[in-house]
């Protein structure tokens, strides 16, 4: 066995041994579903919420394509087009619900924390936190079938796209565009569908990645104004106003460990190894404006025009091609 494979196997065994030491029994508070995008600050927010006593975070437990795929995910999850869960047929729903039932009952530990030496590690837990990347079109399904506190985290599409491109990640757009329900009920406009399919095949790298952001966030953005029970946050706001974020999270999710959240926020995200040195330096220096706005220096005027065209075509007004902060008017 190659040395790297042996190390990975030993690391996986060590993690599972730690997971076995953590006791979980559901308490009075509902589980938390954190719906988010890649490179959108999701790990950071997961760690902030997960720093509260008794919270057990599970990192991407319903995704079938992750770097840390567990045996549960490999053997129990249906295989979805491009790895995204858009809309389920009867067979898929039965299989997926059986998996999610066991997950929320605490019978499966999928990518739980393993760094037991951290001060905010909990060996006794009573509330699950599920970080979900590839099922934002399923947010109402989760809300209907389970007692969940829903959190929706979003980031400006351009820096999110640039970060994914730097890491040479692919897109899941075609998984949405091949789904009949999504095309007919969510997009609902044939001309927009045609444009999306054309860009998915022939757009620039930035266009294709911004299109990916748009289709994967389209459903929650369309229904968000009618879901006041959901807590909607942006990456930009968490960076610019962390104290305000702690307050909103504490009030809406009945969390009280503000000091532990503050310490967790001060740590670099566990995925910060995927960030550029300049971004990490800005975080360390407390230069929040540079963290959220540096991307504006990295795109051309033609890029801005293309991004604006995509957002306008889909009717997305939360961000513009020039804004750094979200405009929540009409959304929450």
Name its key features.
7 strands; 332 residues; 9% strand
Radius of gyration of CA atoms, rounded to a whole number: 20 Å
Shape: globular
User: Approximately how much beta-strand content do the residues carry?
Assistant: 5-15%
Helix count, DSSP H or I runs of 4 or more residues = 16
Helix amount: 40-55%
**E-strand count:** 7
Mean pLDDT across every amino acid position: 85
Q: How many separate domains?
A: 2
Give a short overview.
The protein is α/β, with parallel strands linked by helices. The chain has 16 helices and seven strands.
Q: How is this structure best described in words?
A:
The protein has 16 helices and 7 strands. By secondary structure, it is an alpha/beta fold. The relative contact order is 0.15. The protein is 50% helix and 9% strand. Residues 269-274 and 276-285 have low confidence and may be disordered. Strands 3-5-2-6-7 form a 5-stranded parallel sheet, sandwiched between helices. Strands 1-4 form a two-stranded parallel ribbon. The chain has helices at 3-21, 42-50, 71-76, 90-104, 139-145, 157-166, 173-177, 180-187, 190-202, 205-223, 235-240, 242-253, 258-266, 277-285, 288-293, 301-314; strands at 23-24, 31-35, 55-59, 124-125, 127-132, 148-154, 231-234. The termini are far apart. It has 2 domains: 15-155 and 230-267; 157-227 and 299-332, no CATH class.
């Amino acid at each position: 066995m190659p040395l790297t494979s042996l190390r990975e196997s030993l690391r996986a065994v060590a993690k599972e041994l730690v997971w076995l030491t953590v006791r979980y029994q559901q308490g009075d508070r509902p589980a938390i579903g954190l719906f988010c995008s890649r490179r959108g600050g999701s790990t950071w927010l997961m760690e902030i919420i997960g720093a509260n006593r008794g919270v057990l975070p599970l990192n991407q437990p319903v995704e079938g394509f992750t770097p840390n795929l567990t045996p549960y995910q490999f053997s129990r999850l249906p295989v979805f087009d491009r790895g995204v869960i858009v809309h389920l047929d009867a067979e898929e729903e039965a299989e997926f619900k059986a998996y999610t039932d066991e997950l929320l009952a605490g019978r499966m530990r999928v990518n739980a924390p393993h760094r037991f030496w951290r001060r905010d590690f909990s060996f006794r837990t009573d509330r699950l936190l599920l970080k979900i990347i590839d099922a934002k079109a399923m947010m109402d399904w989760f809300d209907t079938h389970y007692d969940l506190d829903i959190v929706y985290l979003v980031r400006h599409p351009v820096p999110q796209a640039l970060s994914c491109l730097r890491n040479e990640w692919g897109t899941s757009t075609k998984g949405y565009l091949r789904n009949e329900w999504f095309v007919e009920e969510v997009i609902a406009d044939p001309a927009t569908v045609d444009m999306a399919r054309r860009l998915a095949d022939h757009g620039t790298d930035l266009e294709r990645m911004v299109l990916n952001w748009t289709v994967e966030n389209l459903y929650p953005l369309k229904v968000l104004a009618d879901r006041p029970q959901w807590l909607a946050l942006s990456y930009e706001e968490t960076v610019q106003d962390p104290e305000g974020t702690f307050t909103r999270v504490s009030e809406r999710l009945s969390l009280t460990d503000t000091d532990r959240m503050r310490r967790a926020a001060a740590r670099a995200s566990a995925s910060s190894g995927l960030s550029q040195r300049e971004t990490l330096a800005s975080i360390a220096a407390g230069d929040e404006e540079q963290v959220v706005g540096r991307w504006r220096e990295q795109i051309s005027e033609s890029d801005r025009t293309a991004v604006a065209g995509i957002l306008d075509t889909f009717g997305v007004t939360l961000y513009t091609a020039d804004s750094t902060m979200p405009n929540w008017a009409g959304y929450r």
